[in-house]
Amino acid sequence: MSVLNQWINSGHAVCAEALWDHVTMEDQELAFKAGDVIRVLDASHSEWWWGRGADREAWFPSCFVRVRVNQDDSSTESVESVAEQENPKPRDSHSSHHKEQMRTNVVQEIMSTERIYIKHLRDICDGYIRQCRKHPDMFTEPQLKTIFSNIEEIYKFQRQFLKELEKQYNKEQPHLSEIGSCFLGQGNGFSIYSEYCNTHPAASAELQRLMKSGRYKHFFEACRLLQQMIDISIAGFLLTPVQKICKYPLQLGELLKYTPKSHSDHIAVCEAYEAMKNVASLINERKRRLESIDTIAHWQVSILHWEGTDVLELSSELIHSGEMTRIIRYGKVQQRSFFLFDHQLVFCKKDVLRRDLLHYRGRLDMDQTEVLDVPDGRDFDLGVTLKNALRLRNAFTLEFMCMLCCRKAQDKQRWLQAFDKERNRVKEDQEMGMEISEEQRKRAIVNARRAKQGKFKSLGYSGSVRPHHQNILPLHQRHITIPPSVPQQQVFSLVEPPKRKPYHLLYSLTRNAFFRK
Predict the structure, then answer these.
(1) pLDDT score of 328 more than 80
(2) Where is this region: Disordered (predicted)?
């Protein structure tokens, strides 16, 4: 029994802090956000622990959390101190002997988990993929690409990475091993995990669809038994690469803790730790962006009379939204709903009869637009009195584009901050190399349109014809979710105003005619 489980069984509280967001794919899994504290109730399995979150108990991946060990914010005695009671050591935690032993343990753990991981990858490639390709009547190549993504490339890369680790591993004195350089030398290679992590939700969905058939369920179980693989489902095996790339920063953080500055590997471990944190952060950000583009695609197909290119041609995140008054030349005033994405600002007009429907009216390229704060007062060029206003002009020619007026001073400040955030986000994306492939963008739009047509068909409409009263669809069906970066109340305030009984004669006639039909 592990020390951690002994500590739990003795009645002590063991808490773990979430390092990454965990989005559940199964009912038995525990969802949490980075920073959440989870009470660990069972740690008998190395990869999956049972714990209690804010409102329920379920399984969660151990590599997504960090047990509170020797932390100032932990009120309980540390797990490490329990281990020391069983194996007494010098009380001075900074003694060289203690650090050497702890560094030995961390290095050995890295080597051990890496060898086990290679075996898992080999089992997936030889046990599942090879057998699937022998049955073209059951699996097409696109299907296999969806389910397994680029895991064969990952396997090839990890084999080379393990060879480098073995070269730097000192078997006689593991604490002298210099493995930090291995992570630095292969830094760019870890970027291949981005594609795998991004496509993992699609792989899980396709796998769940196939598993509804007993034929596929028995086939995958036969593959597992033939390869003599451990008793974990194929879904569990396919989650392993996602867990592994998130675990590297944790392991290097522990290694750095017990690597003194005088150690020859100290600088390399420092740099490797930062590099792997950046890799994990980039992968997490790309995964979040992929979820965001699905939301944006569903939003776009709900807009009436859309013109021009898709939003996703340039953008991948909704930054801010709200209502403002747009003033163009000659003092013409227009009330519009604005949606600020990275690279562009889209504005729409609310439907006259149904205020929760939006009609497309145009967009501005933020890469060529400059936003200026305008003091309250009379604008003689436009012939209007301005309050809480922003001036938009061409960033290169300085030509006037329009004036935007907010209802309140607080709204104006939020928009100014949002425009600054948009520019910073574009800059960060360029520095990080954040890119969403054209294929992923197109797939998001196609899926959103299919989902919309499917809802129309379920109501008795033809998918090729836009119904006159498509506004009868409930809000939760037309807007699947909201990007996490935007307060939901803002968006819902635009699409779902306070309900009031319409008294328009035209609306009553068309509504009654529709239901009679």
Answers:
(1) yes
(2) 75-103
